Amino acid sequence: MFSLSAIPFILLPLTIARPIDLDGNGIPDFCVPQDNGSTLCLDPNGKWIEPPSQDVVAPQTTSPQPTATTGTQNPTDSTAPLVALPTASSLPPLNPFGKTADFASAKGTKWDISYIGDIKYTGSLATKSVYGDKCRTSKIGSKVIWNCGDMSCNPNVDVCGFAMGPAFYGTDDVMTIDTDDVTSVQNNNFVEPWVGDAQPEAPQTSWGMDTSNVAPINDTHGVAFARQIWRGAPDGSYADQGNAVASITLGQTMPKATRVGPLLTGPDIAELGLVAILRDGEYIYVYSMAGPSKVAVSRVPASDDVFDRANYESLVYDPDSLYTMGTWHAGLPLKDTSSSASSPSSPNTNTASPIYGMTTLEPLYTIICNIFMSFTNMYLSDTPYGPWSTGYSLLSEVSGYGSHAHPEYSEEGGRTIYFSQGPNGQFQMYKVTFDGY
């Protein structure tokens, strides 16, 4: 198994307007480079502006609505009960491709990477200039699910609408998404607020949702996580609400996401699953951006247990050891945790920041990640929770964001893998082959 995203130039208005950041990831959405080297971004009022700065707007961390349960919020708490022990090792993690320099020099002989084109669509969207910031894939039964972020069509939202996180079915081709019945992408919205969630309050005007990939529970049902925010304020700020969890089923023309209750957690907990989620054995593994390695790993039984935070446990990193895996403790990692994470391969290794995408290279688990919107790396482990190998560079100095692997289309047991990335343009697809390993 191989578990290895013609605009007129105008002057900046006197009233400073922040670019839209709908998914709250600190990266402006809807930004387009100009021929003169500047960049224009869409502000919340629908005007194209030159961004005043690239500073991340600090979110408000209020959560007025209730969450599913209280439970243990911080797995690093010394009173948290020990739940299970992963297979720990005092040895360095595996580096199956040798030193990073050796891997780099083997490009073109033992492995290779190529850009194979932009993702295509069927139906009326086939002739449209569709863009967004990332696309993730999953599979329930025989159905491949694509869910994407910040999707619309050039040159404006009148062409095919706008959706924060639409979902579609795949085809048998990694390059083509089934959009036969889609004219407005917002009609395919995926995870949405629960009916009982508190409504956005001024200055916020609307919802925002950043959604994970889907992990199967069985052949007809799955689960997905989402980070829910309020957004739309004139100053570009947003109010972080917390983590949602949804039941995923297979509709006739598109996958369906159903919220079955209030938020799973408030905003103090890490953004669950926005790295990736993975079904492995009897567990759903949840990868979140937190901790010393930038990857916090949690897990929950692959059942209705996903809807109750009391059923989750997280890996607690041992800061006194370079390589020991640590232990599983009840609870979920805090957003600012310093100890709940999959251990890095060395003290100086950041496994990713940010990362997107689990895929597989038999028999290894692999994280595909994008760093600083310019570098795409992979990290490998022989367990779904690490420790991870050194980082192997797949792609460098290529502008991109939200690199996400598509293991549903892997070939030859993962010897050939695919990943796509944005940002805010057509989704680019890359093919990686490992014929010499």
UniProtKB/TrEMBL annotation:
Low complexity bias (residue ranges): 59-73
Signal peptide per UniProt: 1-17
Record's keyword terms, sorted: Signal
Chain segments carrying region Disordered: 51-78
Name of the protein: DUF4185 domain-containing protein
